[in-house]
Amino acid sequence: MPSALPPSRFPHRHLLGIEGLTAGEITHLMDRAESFVAQNQAADKKSGSLRGRTIINLFFESSTRTRTSFELAGKRLGGDVINMSVEYSAMKKGETLIDTAMTLNAMNPDVLCVRHPESGAVKLLSDKVNCAVVNAGDGTHEHPTQALLDALTIRRRKGRLQGLVVAICGDVLHSRVARSNIALLNTMGARVRVVAPRTLLPAAIERLGVAVFHDMRAGLADADIVMMLRLQNERMSGSFVPSVREYFHFFGLDYAKLAVAKADALIMHPGPMNRGVEIDSEVADDIDRSLIRQQVEMGVAVRMACLEVLAENLAGRNEAA
């Protein structure tokens, strides 16, 4: 009989979303990521904790930022990373998602990092493979590593999440980033607001535990964190805003609107930014208040933590078998 293994502080096979995670599990991932920040700033950025492990980045949507971040994370942990280009894959020849999952499963990877334009597709794929799966964004559903890196960025600057007032502004309707952040921030005790025109808010959004505002100045009043969202034109069918110019006038972040937030309020954006649409360039580049570059840096550390924890859990299951 194999010896009993100590319980994992993140006892999940996959990371498919933030919803359902406990505050302790979220904190564990952030604490693990914290340990990688210094490593990523050192001259020698590599370790060997994933040596011999295979990570496949399977992106059905293009995303230079997220895919590169996962690739760096895997390589800095010593893993073998493969980027699958769907444009040239069998999916373009008519192969189904399930067939692709079964083909990849036969190659015995350790972790799949999957981005897909359809909500729920990553969960479907995870049910068909033996390895760990990380959701790198599925439709308008969830983007868990983005929420974790946002939380880590906030915690490093503010020292806490509990009690902070966080205003999430813009295209909430089409944003998986917003959904994951709302779940995480509520679990960690922050007070979450959403600020957007009615056309860019999901029906009954209040059920997610947020305060709803349709005016930027009202929504940003005394906020600690202002998190702007990209206007996702590629997911829109029809007209959701009268014009880009009018949208920026009412809902774009500039210093005039930011003035009602707390004096030390910090600015975030998951990227890529549409300058002059959802955020003014001067605000985005404010070195004292903008956390946008730090978000990118924390993204690598968070993804390193997620890959390492899931690989450890996979090893633990194999030993226990």
Structure summary:
The chain has 321 residues and is of the alpha/beta class.
What's the arrangement of secondary structure elements?
Layout: H1 23-41, E1 54-59, H2 64-76, E2 80-85, H3 97-105, E3 111-116, H4 121-126, E4 132-138, H5 144-158, E5 165-169, H6 176-187, E6 191-195, E7 211-213, H7 216-220, E8 225-228, H8 244-251, H9 255-258, E9 266-268, H10 281-284, H11 292-320
Give a description of the structure.
It contains 11 helices and 9 strands. Helix 5 (144-158) packs across helix 11 (292-320). Mean pLDDT is 91; it is low at 1-5. A 5-stranded parallel β-sheet has the order 7-6-5-8-9. Helix content is 39%, strand content 14%. The chain is globular. It has 321 residues and is of the alpha/beta class.
Spatial ordering of strands, largest sheet: 7-6-5-8-9
Tally the helices: what do you get? 11
Shape: globular
Termini separation comes to 10 Å
**Sheet/helix structural class:** alpha/beta
Radius of gyration: 20 Å
Give the tally of β-strands.
9
Mean pLDDT: 91
Q: Quick one: biggest sheet?
A: 5 strands, parallel
Q: Percent of residues in helical segments?
A: 25-40%
Strand coverage percent: 5-15%
Question: What is the element string, with H for helices and E for strands?
Answer: HEHEHEHEHEHEEHEHHEHH
Multimeric state of these chains? single chain
Uncertain ranges = 1-5
